[in-house]
């Protein structure tokens, strides 16, 4: 009888250990060779350079000769899980992260600058110069002039939603440009014909 009770207690402990809460994954590190193997793994290369930077609490560590692996970590950098992703697709790599609670930030693809055409800009010379002189240097940026509107910079994500709205009134011209550059809005090369088209569209507005 006592032996049966001891056996039952032992089994209960084993079951309890099996159901114990696993270490909490809060960070992920991608380890990979920076070039050699990646050149033959285009999907992994795209995942590393385009998707990984969009995950908070994620970092990439390049190690010469290392296989491409996702290393899931606790708050104290204790390794919980390591997965070789060389045979995975880009979609599957993202799924591995999402299944473990990581959320990818949506990519900013364009911007809209909304402002009153004259009223508020007359007292904001730096913002005015940014709108009339600098915006033509960027791809995927549109200007909307609305009577009475405060000067705002609106970033649109890949789903077409407003991801961020920033009031430009307290900012300098340089700070306004930095907002576009920091969010990877591409700078374009243009010739004199582009300049004429810009001036024409501005006049029409």
UniProtKB/TrEMBL annotation:
Pfam family, one: Sep15_SelM
Signal peptide: 1-20
GO cellular component terms, A-Z: endoplasmic reticulum lumen
Transmembrane segments: none
Assigned keywords, A-Z: Selenocysteine, Signal
One MF annotation (Gene Ontology) recorded for this entry: oxidoreductase activity
InterPro entries per the UniProt record, alphabetical: Sep15/SelM_sf, Sep15_SelM, Sep15_SelM_dom, Thioredoxin-like_sf
Superkingdom as given in the UniProt entry: Eukaryota
Domain Selenoprotein F/M as annotated: residue spans: 30-102, 112-182
Family named by the database record: Belongs to the selenoprotein M/F family.
Name assigned to this protein: Selenoprotein M
Source species of the chain: Photinus pyralis (Common eastern firefly)
